[in-house]
Design a protein that fits this description.
97 residues; alpha+beta; homotetramer; four-stranded antiparallel sheet; Alpha-Beta Plaits
Chain lengths: 97, 97, 97, 97
């Protein structure tokens, strides 16, 4: 039932350096207790739809406190019955090589 | 407070023709009453975060009934105080030309 | 052989109003002569892979002249043998309703 | 001058298991010699615009040999003067925590 997402969420009214803002999201993600993986352009997160989307919403609300323009891109991959996909998908591809 | 999103949601286990599945989502979107715009690769939707995300979740749950693999890509653009952006953003760009 | 893409390309170091920058891209897109459709969050474009990617690259190079940080999200949908999809895909979904 | 991208490219006419197809892309990416990082939902790649886009195009052409429908989502982040961002961006965020 669980889904795998990855997303990038950042203010676009704060100039070129946004890592402090990304760090705020990462703090929220870590506190969620859900499996996650930080990548160079997005963070992957796994869990029930409601769980992962609640985390994304918390990140958005945190940023909105002091950002007047925010952009997000999010991708979701659902596969019936699949679990532990954050690690599993990478392994599955590497085994094919 | 409202956000503008656009998203594409489709099964990847149903072969090359997925418009019947996309039509199911569009039905849910229309019933939501939120402003929307169907594009060739995604549907734009405007409203409060909770409203638009609830619609996206309903579309996902509808597809999940008979799809075992589903992909979604979603982009969100938040701009403090902005409204009527589905039409307004296109106008704003066209006026600059 | 042709592909359908849609993309959003914008500077993130220019504050909240970026429509003048988006308009520059739109000018390049129109001059390309390729079928396109401006949406509220992205522009759809159809043509051979090389053609559409050359247009995207021109838009990027134009923005790079005076932007020091630029973000892009792009989605592509390829379907063997399909043509006129910018209009055709919307029709196909609406007919299913 | 270099850009950071991440992308997912997969056939949607091959059923639920697409890791063999993703592995083909990864092989092309590795042979390119460009810095890359495989994630659970996408692969990050760094280099000049022409270099990274040439790799993406090779991956697409490889898949097109035996897929009749292919989807791709790609995000790009350009930051003037920045290098070694595949590792650097993760570090930068983690240091803020």
């Amino acid at each position: 039932m669980s889904v795998l997402i990855h997303f990038s969420l950042f203010p676009t009214d704060k100039g070129t350096s946004v890592s402090p803002y990304v760090a705020r999201s990462l703090r929220i993600i870590r506190e969620s207790g859900l499996p996650y993986k930080l990548g160079p352009m997005s963070t992957a997160l796994e869990g029930e739809w409601e769980e992962v989307m609640a985390v994304v919403e918390r990140c958005f609300r945190e940023l909105k406190k002091d950002s007047s323009r925010i952009y997000m891109t999010l991708q979701m991959d659902y596969r019936a019955g699949a679990v532990n996909r954050i690690e599993g998908k990478i392994k599955s591809v590497e085994e094919k090589l």
